[in-house]
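Recap quiz, item 2
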Amino acid sequence: MTSTHLPKPTIFALAAIVTIIAGGFGGLVFVAATGISDTDLVFDSFFFSIVRFTLLQAVLSTVLSLVLAVPVARAFSRQNSFWGRRLLLWLFALPLSLPALVVVLAVLGVWGKQGWVQLPFGISIFGLSGILIAHVFFNMPLATRLILSRFDSIPAENWRLANQLDLPASAIFRIIEWPVLKSALPSAGALIFMLCLTSFTIVLTLGGGPKATTIEVAIYQALRFDFDMTRAVFLALTQLGLTIILLLVAHQFSSIAPQIPALSNRNWRLDGQQMQARITDFLIIIAASIFIIAPMISLSLAGIKADLLHILLDPAVHSAIITSLIIAALAALVSLIICWALLIHSAGKSVYISMSASIILVVPPIVLGSGWFVILHRFGDVFSMAPFIVIIINALMALPFVYRVLGPAMHHSARQHDRLSASLGITGMARWKIVDWPVLKKPFAIALAFAMALSLGDLGVIALFGSEHVRTLPLLLLQKMGAYRSHEAAGLALLLAAMCLVLIFTSEKLVGENRQ
Amino acid sequence: MSLVIENLRFAYEDMLMQFDLTVKAGSFLAIIGPSGAGKTTLLNLIAGFDQPLSGSITFNGNQICQLQPARRPVSMIFQENNLFAHLDVFTNVALGISPRLKLDNDDRDKISAAIARVGLDNMQKRLPGELSGGERQRAALARVLVRDKPLLLLDEPFAALGPALRADMLDLASELHTERKMTILLVTHQPEDARRVASHTAFLDNGKITVCEETQKFFQLKNYIELGDYLGR
């Protein structure tokens, strides 16, 4: 029991992760070292404008999301029991479950040139404004739920006391709400900043040109359009530096991996009952809800109007669906196996194990993909290896989420069952069949569905490595958008959204059953 | 015919423990002492869940220190989690006969008889979550019966039960002790448990067994200060 050596599967999984990361790094460093003579050409004014814009859009997106989320969360917190509250909050969890490309189409449906709302002063949706709208659509609901869950954890006694002392709203804010916000905002902000810093799809499709390009998109363009390996490598290393700095800073605010907290049914607030409070709160809630729901409705309408039958009969769509499902299933499976191997025996108590499970948060998929791209480009055929690279990187992307589902489950199971199994001599396959599988099959299914949904909606690595031979649904959708076939694009987006949501719902339903 | 523990050393954080103990086969030994003194550690060492730094454990003359937990002549009941929560009572008891759940008719009869003996007759198909705390420990005792190992370690198994229920369970353990001629080691916080069922009682303090006596004599010891402090007299 006290042995410190790692079991074989764990060593194997760690070796696999190290190989993938080292391979990507090796590629970057190799090209950086051999192409060092022309660094002047890399670090030009365009390079710095890309870095500047990357940071600018991330800062603005984060600030906007938080500033808008605070009053919305407060309104939901004060109005703690109205008809439809649960449904609205559930809808607030949806944007993060949707593939980014689907969100782009949904946002365009409302805010685009032919959309329901025209931006004032002739501002185009393509550029900074579009990026901000999409990022706020993604992250404001996330921030709302993060903040609301902290409001919900304020003890009932505080509210009863505030009620007894008849504290006015300003005093409640200063004495009760602000301390909670002060601890919730930095971690929520760090998380959103990270998501926006590494946002690829939204910037690629809504950026609309060299003036509004982030590092990740510039890497993609350097590799796929300019064939400028050196530039791509230095951009990738810059992005890596930024994420590492951010993670070091954010480390103080705990976990950075996106996590939507479960909503508690309990909230003892008593201060939202006056007419004035009710009116302001409901105006805020209605406005926020319209902002979130309208794009989803517009996407659904456009998707239904598209000739779905025609789209479903298109052989290109068939093959994209099949490719997507195969890649997603394999990526989820690989992710699960790696995670299980990391957690076996020691149940992942070591810091190194949990760090290696989250390595993809430090090395963004595009950075890792570009490393492998330059290596394969030098030594072989990039596109013939595409499926493997996409599956492996997607598996690593899902790993932090899978780890968070399986980690506690396996840890709990080990703590409860290790001594008992050892004393009864239940080992090997019998242990798996009788003890582990019955307890862990639900967490495995939850993780599998979630990982599949994540991989299914991913456009990033596949954009780097995709070709006419390997084309997933998001990649096909991107090509339809590029060719201005907006009807087909809407139909495909609805299809993709439906596939992801079915998986997410399955996973959520299993979580619900698992809790009982 | 006895359990002999000699120079058994074990380190936990910065506490060094060293145990010496001889228990005659067929006795019922209660082990009392302050929390953190190493009572559970001693049982874990005997059961094989912890590995000693040095020393030996022999049972009836055979060295058992190198054996896997399942190969030792030992059954152990913990304070909780003695049953797999997803398996019913019958299956949980059956695991005591076959860890791979390969059962013949004789086995099934034996299992049913054991379950009946501990008074859970009509609860074979219940899941542990549907049982009371006392019933769960009864099911664990049924598994001890079918495993039929000569040495039984009880690690405060009845501590979470109320006084009357605890007395019932102790009496059941005592009956099984007489029927099966088992050697039992019972770790407990309650001196009255020792008085009720134990033929011998040991005091374990700060990683050492300082007293081991017949129960009656044990509670008459006058000039032992630490024991006096612990018992509050």
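The first strand of chain B starts at residue 2 and ends at 12.
The interface with chain A takes residues 47-51, 68-71, 74-76, 78, 81-82, 84-87, 95-96, 99-101, 147 of chain B (CB under 8 Å).
End of item.
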